Each structure stands twice: as C-alpha cells, then as structure tokens.
Amino acid sequence: MIRRGTTPTQVFNTSIDLSSATVLYVSYKQHGKVLINKTLEDCVVDSTSVTTALTQEETLLLDDKVKVEIQIRAKFSDGDAVASNIMETDAGRILKGGVI
C-alpha cells in the first residue's frame, strides 16, 4: 500500500539484472493516466532490485478509491527493452490532506 501524503521508499525485486539499463522508468497509473514517472536518475538499481522514493506531493496525486498500477520499463545500450508485469496496490487514506 502507498499511503497518501507520505514519503515511502519502494523496493521492487527483479528477475532481470537492470543495473546496466541506459533508460528506466517506474510508472504509477490511475484512471487510465500515468500520474508519476520515476526515471533512472530517481532510482537505485542493482542486479536484483530497483529502489525509488515518492514525495508527499506525488503520493497526494493518488486517489484512495482506485487501485494504483505500477510498471517498470527499461532499455539497454544494445536496444533491448523489457517491461515488468503490471503490479497493483492500494492508495491509503489520510484524514488531513495536504503536505505537512
């Protein structure tokens, strides 16, 4: 779960070594629209995982009534491109909105 208004660090375990990727996106989608795109520069990538952090502003973009879809896509210098399965999680409610 991603609780709205928080700053979670998310770790995605991968079966493919993405450490040599030249382009990488972690995309978060709701209502048919990508709301958050993390790039290679926003992530720590090693041979078995991709780690990225979300800001309060980013998590506040999420609707707590709809599942969040997440997907990792990457491209390598030889032109090969890969995509993870689409993952789903909930966006958790908060009582007081806004950045604190």
Set out the fold topology.
Elements: E1 2-3, E2 9-13, E3 23-30, E4 33-39, E5 43-45, E6 49-53, H1 56-59, E7 68-75, E8 81-83, E9 87-89, E10 91-92
Parallel strand pairs: 1-10
Antiparallel strand pairs: 2-6, 3-4, 3-7, 5-6, 7-8, 7-9
Poorly predicted ranges: none
Estimate what percentage of residues fall within beta strands: over 45%
Instruction: Tell me, briefly, the overall form.
Output: elongated
Task: Give me the CATH architecture, please.
Answer: Sandwich
How many strands? 10
CATH H-level name... which superfamily? Answer: Immunoglobulins
Q: How would you characterize the largest beta sheet? A: 5 strands, antiparallel
Estimated radius of gyration: 14 Å
What's the CATH class label? Answer: Mainly Beta
Give the N-terminus to C-terminus distance in angstroms: 20 Å
Name the average pLDDT: 98
Helix content: under 10%
Specify the number of helices: 1
**Count of discrete domains:** 1
CATH topology: Immunoglobulin-like
Q: Structural class, judged by helices and strands? A: mainly beta
List SSEs in N-to-C order: EEEEEEHEEEE
Give a description of the structure.
This protein is mainly beta and 100 residues long. The protein is built from one helix and ten strands; from the N terminus they run ββββββαββββ. Helices cover 4% and strands 46% of the residues. Strands 3, 4, 7, 8 and 9 form a five-stranded antiparallel β-sheet that branches. A three-stranded antiparallel β-sheet has the order 2-6-5, with no helix packed on it. Strands 1-10 form a two-stranded parallel ribbon. The protein has a single domain (2-92), classed as Immunoglobulins (Immunoglobulin-like).
